[in-house]
Design brief:
Elements: E1 12-15, H1 23-35, H2 42-50, E2 60-66, E3 69-77, E4 90-96, H3 105-119, E5 124-129, H4 134-139, E6 143-149, E7 154-160, E8 167-171, E9 174-177, H5 195-205, E10 210-215, E11 218-223, E12 234-238
Parallel strand pairs: 4-5
Antiparallel strand pairs: 1-2, 2-3, 3-4, 5-7, 6-7, 8-9, 10-11, 10-12
Helix pairs in contact: 1-2
């Protein structure tokens, strides 16, 4: 499944470096949302955003757009809270234009930014938000880590990546570990008829007491025997 599949089909998420025509709009929205009320000039936001336009690593700015129209943005940066310098990287500056809210754009931007961090080798990704946004991020699979941090009393969230093991076996469902693995990645089309065969294959190769399934953003521990899973996207073996 592509990370941005939840978006309406005519929307796209791109690296801002590949769509520099949105630079001024992104800089303005970040300034309006987070810096203007503190008396910080627009030039500061512009200067910070320019750091995202060189190279291909962090910082990273993403932009959601449709037919040349800006819809939203999110960034992945090395540091977002002076109070927690050891935490890195951070999903930050998540913004959706008012007319596009409620269409899944913000969740897709957040997921894409986090995926970029995991792809870069970071084991966990952080995010901070005001207390009223707690439920929103928890529904997206983010775990509250700390509350009331800094002068703004922010909540820090974390999302853990799944550790990949050595890949050597291939099935029609995707590439799986030879085992006994600490973690198994299983990517396949979410079609219920395939799942019993997949489960049987895994139980035959790695007879453990239970598996941990991540389904629809929620982790579910299922003891053997188990059948009829509604959706299996990622699968981890638990000793």
């Amino acid at each position: 499944m592509r990370i941005d599949e939840a978006l309406p089909p005519d929307f796209t998420i791109s690296d801002l470096r590949d769509c520099p025509e949105f630079f001024d709009t992104v800089a303005d929205r970040i300034w309006q949302a987070w810096w203007k009320r503190h008396g910080v000039p627009l030039a500061y936001s512009v200067g910070r955003l320019r750091e995202n336009m060189t190279g291909r690593g962090l910082p990273l700015a993403l932009v959601a757009h449709r037919a040349g129209q800006f819809a939203g943005t999110a960034s992945l940066i090395t540091s977002d809270l002076d109070e927690r310098p050891a935490y890195t990287p951070w999903v930050a500056a998540v913004w959706t234009e008012p007319e596009f809210r409620g269409q899944g754009i913000a969740p897709a931007l957040i997921a894409r930014a986090a995926a970029a961090g995991f792809a870069a080798g970071f084991p966990r990704i952080y995010l901070c938000a005001a207390k009223p946004r707690r439920v929103f991020y928890e529904r997206l699979g983010w775990t509250p880590l700390e509350d009331d941090v800094g002068d703004l009393q922010l909540t820090i969230f974390v999302k853990e990546g799944l550790r990949k093991c050595r890949v050597a076996h291939k099935t029609r469902f995707g590439r799986l570990d030879t085992g006994p693995p600490a973690m198994v990645f299983c990517r396949h089309e979410h079609r219920r008829p395939q799942q019993p065969s997949l489960v049987a294959h895994l139980l035959k190769r790695w007879p453990v007491r239970f598996y941990l399934f991540q389904s629809s953003g929620a982790a579910i521990a299922v003891r053997r025997p188990f059948v009829r899973l509604s959706c299996v996207a990622l699968l981890a073996q638990v000793s």
